[in-house]
Amino acid sequence: MNADLVCLLMEDYNVDTVMHFAAQSHVDRSFGNSLEFTQTNVLGTHVLLECAKKRNIKRFIHVSTDEVYGEIPVGLADEMALLSPTNPYSCSKAGAEFVCQAYIRSFHLPIIITRGNNVFGPMQFPEKVIPKFILRLNKNQKCCIHGSGEGSRNFIHTSDVVKAFTIILHKGTIHEIYNIGTRFEISVISLARKIVTYMKGQGKADFNPDEWIEHVPDRAFNDCRYRINSSKLVSLGWEEPFSEEVFDKQLHETIDWYLGHLDWWDHDISSYLDPHPFAYKATGIPESPSVQNLITQS
């Protein structure tokens, strides 16, 4: 990470606000390439924070994830819940949050932290579950479900996320944490059935969506459920999405976008559509030059 370059860019462009979305974010890949996740998510955040401190940034919004809470078997997690990440990705995001907290306490940097549900919508890279299922089905390949698929997730559309960050940017309180979540909860296998039915089952009375679903080995660890309390953000004027009807509409619009933009990707993405986009290594150390260099330098 080139701190000198980041600081120079902030100075040249007179940056006074940072919205830090950048991250390695795919859980599957973190099991096989975990050192790269730590380098990008923790060290990358630290570099931005250090440059922001030197520039006297007025507002720094750090985008984290609901996965830092770990599994939430019952109830909802509010912003004061204990962080208990369970995979290398969420651990790296929790680590980045702790660096943010240090800069709040030590340097009073004007940081706001957000923790959000899974985002979906047009233009999302195909390694994520919704576009992956859409593009696999378009190739007449089955949806690949990790394990039983009974684990539940909360998916929030990009339009709702944009509204949330607009409110946080203009109304959020410095040094606060805001959850960004939806009350609508769905299992991964139910999500797959919705996508399969829309793409393959329209007009077929006896259609069985499970014929287009296959179960593959589960992740090394797979959280069973996430559910977060977004009432703090709602109190600022954000409308929390909760309707299955609205989710279905947004899901169908997303499917239609992908089917209408099959030429969107400028390189071969077939490897990202595999059940596990990054093969797990028995040693735990990936054969990546950048990561091997990191090991050598440490």
Question: What can you see in these coordinates?
Answer:
With about 300 residues, this protein is an alpha/beta fold. The protein has a single domain (about 5-280), classed as NAD(P)-binding Rossmann-like Domain (Rossmann fold, 3-Layer(aba) Sandwich). It has helices at about 5-10, 25-30, 35-55, 90-105, 130-140, 160-170, 190-200, 230-235, 245-260, 290-295, and strands spanning about 15-20, 60-65, 110-115, 120, 145, 150-155, 155, 175-180, 185, 215. The chain has a 4-stranded parallel sheet, sandwiched between helices. Helix 5 (about 130-140) packs parallel to helix 7 (about 190-200) and helix 7 crosses helix 9 (about 245-260). The chain is globular. The two termini are about 15 Å apart. The relative contact order is 0.16.
